[in-house]
Amino acid sequence: MNKRLTTLAAALLAAASIHGYAAAGGVLRLDESPIGELDPAKATDYADSILMFNMYDTLVMPKQGATGFDPMLAESWTSEGSTYTFKLRKDVKFQSGNPMTADDVVFSLNRMKAIGQGLSYLFTDVDKAEAVDASTVKFTLKKPSAPFIASLVRLPIVDKKLVMEHLDKGDGEMKDWGQAWLDTHAAGTGAYTVVSHNPQSETIMKKNPAYFLGIPAAAPDEVDFKYGLEAATVRTLITQGKHDISSQWLPPEVLKALAGDGAQLFTEKGTSEFYIKLNTAKAPFDDPECRLAVSYAFDYSAGIKMVAIKDKVAQGSPSTGALPVGMLGSLPEADVIKQDLAKAKEHLAKCKYKPADMKVELSWIGEVPLEERFALLLQANLSQIGVKAEVKKVPWALFTEMVTKPENTPNVSQVFVNSVTGDPDTLLYGMYHSSAAGTWMSPEYLKDAKVDELLDKGRAAPEADRAAIYQELNKRLKELAPTIFAQDQTAVFAASKRVTAPALSDPKKAFGLAGFGFSFRLIEVKD
Questions:
Q1: Angle CA(50)–CA(52)–CA(56) in degrees, nearest 5?
Q2: Residue 231: in which H helix or E strand, if any?
Q3: Which of 6, 42, 382, 428 could bridge to 387 as Cys pair (CB 3.0-4.6 Å)?
Q4: Which residues contact 253 (CB under 8 A, 6 or more apart)?
């Protein structure tokens, strides 16, 4: 946190009513956890996504209040086998004033693949992109890929001409592909332009008056997007009318206190889940009976109560399986997973390891204090069936290194995983396909031929068949129990009364893509 904010927080310790806010002159003030990445080829995190969805546009966008995708920079598209052809809008200009053409789309894909960071893995199956003419671009895939259209929401289109003017030191014709410049500048068509950017503290943005879709007058004229504010600071600033929307990572008790002071609670759900992952590559969870015992022992309802904020608002909701309720292929909402100690003991009796001989290490990520509560809950649940467990705090950097080898991976890990495209493939393939083991998403090290088959089938099948495939996969994963599907995550944000955000407050206007509800042109700010 910077010195100016620390001083301000100290001066505001005597909190007054939230209703005593001052006019902000059309400025929207919000925060997220660090770090804010501005380069489209490197952006991955939630804060990064908010920047991308405001400074850049993509060929398609998620439908509002429904599943699927609508054209955005594209007017339409057609597909034939492994080929997709897009007709582009002809009325779009970049923030620089340069017209957006098919060359920019090709350049954006090539740049992302060449840099090989961020979400570039989404485009591994794209063999090439070609500019047929100025307003037509053709993608050729190595093989049919049903999630391809969804992946395009993560291909921000950059201004080729502008980037080429700012190449810095590097090898080859493209040198650094403009990375040094794009670390602090934007080159998009988006509704907001960057005024200043410091990834450790804040990004300041303002309206793009030439935006091709137009921006309502009530949308914020300026946005001050801060990073890494402490919970106590955010609470004080919102209470005093000096801040508008919190991050999703406030502890439930802080959100509850802000709601009690009159703050609004915005929510976003349907794309993320909280997973408690079991290492299937070493004892005792190499035995599926032992994994099933632990899955039935976990107290799911207690977990929901731990993240409750007020009636009908919590940071989590009951899970039905590997996919959040409402996502393509998810199981019915009525089939929520519940604790069953009798079944837990039945499966434990079939496990090849005796409870007295089990050594279970329950890890939690040090940067996410909420996870300690879940580790302690599971420790208590395991004691109910005679299994002893040790709770260990692990820093994120160490955890990501540990999971690269199954023998170093903890018996139990905890992660929040988000479908960055809204498609089930993005969520499940990287967790459960045997080829993907050894990342922070896949510390289970699951190897199951049927799971691999269904995951590959889900990628290649016609859209009409995919829901049934992922439901079958969901059921198979529940049978194998490599993971405790603890709860579907609900992102909850405290907000001042001066802000209106329909996409974050009305389910009928929500988007099935995390962060898209923070498209600032869809938010209203009262002076």
A1: 135
A2: helix 231-239
A3: 382
A4: none
Question: What SS3 state is found at 240?
Answer: coil
Q: How far apart are CA 442 and CA 354, in angstroms?
A: 27
* Strand pairing class (222-227; 27-32): parallel
Binned at pLDDT 50, 70 and 90, residue 67 comes out as confident
Q: Which two tokens stand for residue 273?
A: 């889940």
> Alpha-carbon Rg of the chain, whole angstroms?
24
Tokens of residue 227, six digits: 């990073």
Q: Can you say whether the dihedral through the CA atoms of 216, 220, 221, 224 is positive or negative?
A: negative
- Checking if the pLDDT of 19 tops 80, the result is no
Q: What is the 3-state secondary structure (H, E, C) of 346-381?
A: HHHHHCCCCHHHCCEEEEEECCCCHHHHHHHHHHHH
What contacts 64, CB < 8 A, 6 or more positions away? 503, 509, 510, 511
Q: Give the residue from 287, 278, 289, 283 showing the smallest Cα distance to 347.
A: 289
Query: What are the tens digits of pLDDT across the range 436-491?
Result: 999 999 999 999 999 999 999 999 999 999 999 999 999 999 999 999 999 999 99
- CA nearest neighbour of 219 among 503, 22, 506: 503
Q: Kindly state the DSSP code that residue 480 receives in the 8-state scheme.
A: H
User: What predicted TM-score, i.e. pTM, was given to this entire model?
Assistant: 0.90
Which of the two residues, 36 and 136, has the higher pLDDT score?
136
Report pLDDT digits (tens) over 241-265. Answer: 999 999 999 999 999 999 999 999 9
The string of DSSP letters for 416-478 reads EEE-TTS-HHHHHHHHHSGGG-SSTT-TT----HHHHHHHHHHHHS-HHHHHHHHHHHHHHHH
Give the number of other Cβ atoms within 10 Å of residue 93's Cβ: 15
Report which of 459, 475, 420, 451 is spatially closest to residue 153, judged by C-alpha positions: 420
Q: Is 175 exposed, middle or buried, given 0-12, 13-18 or 19+ CB atoms closer than 10 A? A: middle
Q: How far apart are CA 421 and CA 417, in angstroms?
A: 12
- Taking the C-alpha atoms of residue 210 and residue 191, their distance in angstroms, rounded to an integer, is 8
- Would you state the structure tokens that stand for residue 35, as one six-digit string? 């770090």
Nearest to 323 by CA among 414, 466, 428, 449: 428
**3-state class of 70 per DSSP?**
strand
* pLDDT tens figures, 330-343: 999 999 999 999 99
